[in-house]
Design a protein that fits this description.
The chain has 183 residues and is an all-alpha fold. 65% of the residues lie in helices and 0% in strands. InterPro entries: Mitochondrial_18_kDa_protein. This is Mitochondrial fission process protein 1.
Length: 183
């Protein structure tokens, strides 16, 4: 927590009042608590379909995911700017920390690491199918897409936790950010 304000939480808005009092009204974070959250996974879907679609579609999926990450970072900066618990003298620093922490976390956990993981998994599955089966190429490509899509839910939480650990060990120490991970 930064003076009572959560910078990033991948499972909730970090509303500690709601956590302490289950009956309290929880603010909905549209970037974390609604279907909008799935835009962060657009590039994993794009990577899964790479064997079937033009590369421009894959790059477009990265643009969607990056726009989502940017919007979430801006949102967290705005929330920090409006937080009455943040001292005016610290406002710029805290807003910058919130934006940087959220953007780096989202960039790694939602775009770079899962995109690379799905890309390599799909490339490997396509290669293995080519070397070990006599399936026609279109079937191998669809099978590879299915492998990529089915891996997305499996990789999300381990990557999120790993990025939390990485940032807790590096960036958050350097920026003097204490993070509660939604606990």
């Amino acid at each position: 927590m930064i003076q009572g304000a959560t910078i990033h939480s991948n499972t909730s808005t970090g509303d500690t009042a709601s956590m302490a009092d289950p009956g309290a009204k929880k603010d909905v974070d549209i970037y974390r608590d609604t279907l909008l959250r799935y835009l962060g996974y657009a590039n994993e879907v794009g990577e899964s379909f790479r064997a079937l679609v033009p590369v421009s579609v894959v790059w477009g999926s990265y643009a969607v995911a990056t726009a989502y990450c940017t919007a979430d970072a801006i949102d967290k900066g705005r929330k920090m700017a409006k937080n009455p618990k943040v001292e005016p003298a610290e406002k710029t620093k805290k807003v910058t920390q919130a934006v940087v922490d959220t953007f780096v976390w989202q960039g790694l956990a939602s775009v770079a690491i899962p995109g690379f993981t799905i890309n390599r998994l799909c490339a490997l599955s396509l290669l293995l199918l080519r070397k070990t089966t006599n399936l026609p190429l279109p079937i191998r490509k669809w099978a590879t897409t299915a492998v990529g899509l089915s891996a997305i839910p499996v990789i999300i939480h381990p990557i999120d936790r790993s990025v939390d650990f990485l940032l807790d060990s590096t960036l958050r120490k350097w920026l003097d950010i204490q993070h509660d991970h939604g606990n």
